[in-house]
Design a protein that fits this description.
single chain, about 425 residues, alpha/beta, Alpha-Beta Plaits, Rossmann fold, 3 domains, 4-stranded antiparallel β-sheet, 17 strands, elongated
Length: about 425
Amino acid sequence: MPPPVARPQNYFLNETHELSVESKEGGGPPAQYPDIDWAKKSKTLHQSLRKVAQRAAQSRDPLSSRKYYILADAAQGLEKFSKAQDAVNQRRPAPVIFSGEQSRIFERAGLDLIEVHPSGAATVHASAERMKQLLARTEQLSQSGVRQQSRFVAFEDFDWLEGRLKYDQEWLEELGRNSGEGLIQLQPLITEVEADLVFRAMTQMLQGSKLDRLRGKGRSYMGRYFLRASLTPETIQRIADEFTSVQSIHAPIVALASALPPEIGGAGLATKAPPVVVSRLPCVGILDTAVPTDHEWLAPYRRGGPMLGLNCANDPTDSHGSVVATRVVYGDVDLSSGADLPAPSCRFLEIRLGNGQPGRIRTESVVTALAAALIAAPDVRVFSISFDSDARLDDMQTTKRKETLKLIEEIDNFAFDQDVLIVIAAGNSQG
């Protein structure tokens, strides 16, 4: 009996190397989900996207119709066919969890995942072109193939990104009717030109206000733009509701240089160490409060002038920076009265990050200051960070905790990206 004749079959792909949305065969079998009314689901998804587009067209945010930041809700009670032994009537629950491995759900639908909220909903991004495609595809889901339907099966609906997700209500209650210093963090994927458009729109919105003021802008190491501002709770809520380009608004994240009393013991009578060739000593970058430039023990071992972090204070306000620098230069030494100073083992590059108050560090400036230090002194590969938060992560308000974790992530990414060693020696949380 002659073997069966193998006949070639052509699959026509679109510009994203995908099969046609109407295609029902080829490319591997997609998962099948029973009991889904695709006509109803198509209508729900399409109408929810239309409402978002209509709200965006009326928004004060200049990017609202260029970059869509949308809230996606996960489908509930989803099941899929399965031949596994533990399946009941060939069905197994298929819970939708947007984080972890299931984050690829968004890629298949043509969306960018920005963040997953504690409620399980997710903020996603779509370009203007992609939004048009989503509107067209969700309108025709009941006539589309199984593969196309499976791209949207995990979504219950879409919604305007709510302002309450961007700030901590506890913080607003602490402010009362007063204006407080805060940071307005923009969403990822926003360029410098687009950020300027948003900042100008906010400036126009705040014109005439006596309590609200924008104080300066910045950019994180990962490319996210932010504004420093003094804002009232009412204005915080308005900005959060109107500007989908804003990811979060929160109080400044300030670290403590020390939780100990400032009395560390004097050592003014210590004798000088024997001379060394300073230029041959290794150098450590110190991120801390300011060290006086004329410090008797430390001035000879300073590398260049002090560097200043973005929006940071340039004057010494406490002794913590000097204590850390002394440890770097001389090691763990006896600083009691009459003790002799040992020979120095290091020089130090000073990076000032104080916020102008004793023992307080402006945390959002850490990574950009590290990047600037590497440009000024590329041979410095070791940096010391000797400060900590004033609260445990679990005790922080939701938005502030989220932004603190992002700062930690940026420091970690910087160390890996630039191949530097960051020595963190702190434990200042109360209790």
